[in-house]
């Protein structure tokens, strides 16, 4: 009974969104009510803790809405200035093949944004770019979410490693570096296949009857890109630690992808465009804007994100100048929601939109129109996110109860540990996925479950670093199906109400990635 209640935050959304195909605004509102009632009646959470958890979720919603607004306002500004047209012409000059464009935009550019920003920003940036290239909305959103996975363990300048493992007994620079290297070793086996899985999803679900064949011809090139990203990630993790792995790995991948795609190496001669939107018309106008000027706002985004995260005085300024953090909500110690406004990727994206107008010599009226469009888009999403995050924080704070029960996440983890025992390495990534599915954050998933993973590894005499690496990679895989990431990415693509369809497309790849991680971890434990 307790296990069913603990899993209610997973079971109810899956039932309503995926099986019954409810729009997220309705499905997540019902899910939140069900979980809250069970938390009070079965788990014994008091009214004050429930109320403070709900307010924590509402506050966290505002932080995500700022990121969503920033991603939308930048995109809409660049559409208004004509920069998106020029960016797309740049991609098309490399290849007209949508399979190649998918790897460039969703996997490599998305990994670059993940390495600099994290927190769901990549899919919000890459899905609209693919829409502008002509991808069908469902194809753009699903593949953007699947692509934002391999880089997640090192997202936001290494935050999942540096913060997610910070409470462990061995926490420290050397330990973080060793676990980071182990992550890349597992991903040499598992993450290398993500570019191919991306193309397989695209051709199977959005092709015209020859999905597997159209994917298999891309296998050699996708393996090259996967090995390039993950092989260089191993090198960078070994040399520099976890902070810059995703950024440098994606840049290395972009260089190799650009050279090989231009020359047609390992690529089929046929051009695949089956996933084009019906009645999509390529822009006839040829932009006279320079490619660097068109891309400059995104370059600014990466630079500002790096400055705010690695330059000590600038980091301190952005974290403290406008701090809307809410601590000890309703007087409940330990329930808080942080919000350093200037440090948020949403602020950086908004600033980049304003700077774009200066660099591209356009009127500030473009920004006003973009802001109006963006605010209109996120209205319904705000309600959905508030319900989702209220549920998430009630689940996470369920250890504060009057029945002396452990929290729901801990209860689930102990149940899984008892079931798997010495075969735990195969379950470890799925615990990471579960954490990200519910909380929407690889960092929070790892903070929550890494102590449990650590204790299970010790108890079963497993390699601790391999188990923790499986947790981190699994948490990245959970990004594909995380409800609030799905809601946000669907919103920027104008697909409100289609969230269940998105999860149906991303669930298989998320589970397959978890299986590959378990196999890679098992092999690695036999070697180390």
List its traits.
lactate transmembrane transporter activity; transmembrane helix; mainly alpha; Lactate_perm; cell membrane; 25 helices; 528 residues; transport
Short description:
The protein has 528 residues and is an all-alpha fold. The protein is built from 25 helices and no strands.
Give an account of the 3D structure:
The structure is a single chain. The chain has a domain at 1-82 and 289-397. The protein has helices at residues 2-6, 8-19, 24-41, 47-81, 83-94, 98-116, 121-132, 137-147, 155-162, 173-189, 194-206, 211-216, 219-240, 245-263, 291-310, 312-320, 345-359, 365-377, 379-396, 408-420, 428-439, 442-459, 464-478, 483-492, 499-527. It has 528 residues and is mainly alpha-helical. Helix 4 packs parallel to helix 17 and helix 7 (121-132) packs antiparallel against helix 8 (137-147). It contains 25 helices and no strands. The model has no long low-confidence stretch (mean pLDDT 91). 72% of the residues lie in helices and 0% in strands. One of its GO terms (molecular function) is solute:proton symporter activity. It holds the Pfam family Lactate_perm. Keywords: Cell membrane, Membrane, Transmembrane, Transmembrane helix, Transport. Belongs to the lactate permease family. This is L-lactate permease.
């Amino acid at each position: 009974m307790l296990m069913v209640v603990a899993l209610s935050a997973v079971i109810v959304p899956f039932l309503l969104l995926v099986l019954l195909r409810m729009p997220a605004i309705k499905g997540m509102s019902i899910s939140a009510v069900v979980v809250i009632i069970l938390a009070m009646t079965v788990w014994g959470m008091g009214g004050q803790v429930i109320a403070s958890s709900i307010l924590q979720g509402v506050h966290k919603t505002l932080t995500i809405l700022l990121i969503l607004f920033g991603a939308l306002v930048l995109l809409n500004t660049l559409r208004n200035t004509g920069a998106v047209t020029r960016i797309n012409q740049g991609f098309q000059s490399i290849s007209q093949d949508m399979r190649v464009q998918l790897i460039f935009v969703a996997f490599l550019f998305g990994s670059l944004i993940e390495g600099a920003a994290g927190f769901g920003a990549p899919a919000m940036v890459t899905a609209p770019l693919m829409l502008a290239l002509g991808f069908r909305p469902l194809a753009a959103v699903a593949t953007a979410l699947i692509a934002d996975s391999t880089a997640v363990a090192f997202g936001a300048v290494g935050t999942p490693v540096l913060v997610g493992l910070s409470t462990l007994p061995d926490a420290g620079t050397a330990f973080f570096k060793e676990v980071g290297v182990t992550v890349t070793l597992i991903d040499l086996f598992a993450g290398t296949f993500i570019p191919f899985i991306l193309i397989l999803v695209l051709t199977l679900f959005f092709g015209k009857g020859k999905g597997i064949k159209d994917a298999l011809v891309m296998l050699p090139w996708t393996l090259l890109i996967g090995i390039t990203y993950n092989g260089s990630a191993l090198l960078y993790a070994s040399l520099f630690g976890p902070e810059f792995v995703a950024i440098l790995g994606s840049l290395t991948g972009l260089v190799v992808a650009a050279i090989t795609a231009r020359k047609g190496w390992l690529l089929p001669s046929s051009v695949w465009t089956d996933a084009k939107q019906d009645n999509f018309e390529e822009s006839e106008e040829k932009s006279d804007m320079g490619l660097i000027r068109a891309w400059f706002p995104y370059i600014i985004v990466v630079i500002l994100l790096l400055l705010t995260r690695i330059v000590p005085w600038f980091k301190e300024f952005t974290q403290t100048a406008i701090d809307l953090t809410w601590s000890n909500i309703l007087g409940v110690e330990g329930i808080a929601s942080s919000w350093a406004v200037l440090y948020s990727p949403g602020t950086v994206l908004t600033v980049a939109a304003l700077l774009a107008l200066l660099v591209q010599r356009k009127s500030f009226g473009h920004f006003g129109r973009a802001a109006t469009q963006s605010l209109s888009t996120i209205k319904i999403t705000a309600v959905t996110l508030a319900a989702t995050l209220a549920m998430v924080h009630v689940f996470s704070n369920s250890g504060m109860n009057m029945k002396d029960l452990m929290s729901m996440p801990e209860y689930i983890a102990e149940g899984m540990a008892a079931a798997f025992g010495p075969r735990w390495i195969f379950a470890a990534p799925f615990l990471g996925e579960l954490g990200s599915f519910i909380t929407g954050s690889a960092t929070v998933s790892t903070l929550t479950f890494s102590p449990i993973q650590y204790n299970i590894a010790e108890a079963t005499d497993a390699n601790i670093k391999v188990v923790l690496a499986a947790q981190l990679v699994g948490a990245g895989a959970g990004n594909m199906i995380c409800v609030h990431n799905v809601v946000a990415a669907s919103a920027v693509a104008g697909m409100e109400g289609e969230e269940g369809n998105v999860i149906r497309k991303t669930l298989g790849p998320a589970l397959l990635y978890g299986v590959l991680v378990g196999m890679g971890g098992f092999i690695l434990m036999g070697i180390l």
